[in-house]
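Entry type: protein chain
Record version: 2
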Amino acid sequence: MSMSFQEVVGRKIRLDRVTNAVAILNEIGVSPNPVELQATLNLSIAADGPVGFRIYDLLGRTVGRGHLGHLTAGDHRIELPIGSIPNGVYIVRVDAGDVRLSKKFLVQR
C-alpha cells in the first residue's frame, strides 16, 4: 500500500506498510570545511547499493561528478575532485538508490 504525502499528513501509519521507505544513505559530510587543497566526502551507508555524487555551484551548474559504484554498508571516505574549482560555496549531492542528501561546503584557498 502506497500513500501520497497529503494522505499521510495527520494520520498515524505503520512503517511496515510504507513502500520504498528503505534509506540506504544515513549521513554525508565534507571535511575539512572550508576546503583548501583536498576535500573528503564522508558517507554513512545503511545498506549495500549504487552511489554517485554531483558537485554544484550556487547557480546550479554541475562542476564535478562521479559514480562510486556499488558500495557496501558502513562508513566510506571518498576524495572529491576539487582541484580546478575556484573559491566559493558549493553543494555536493549524493545519490544512493532513491535517497538524495546534500551538504554545503566552502572552497577557500
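Comment: The CA atoms of residues 6 and 51 lie 30 Å apart.
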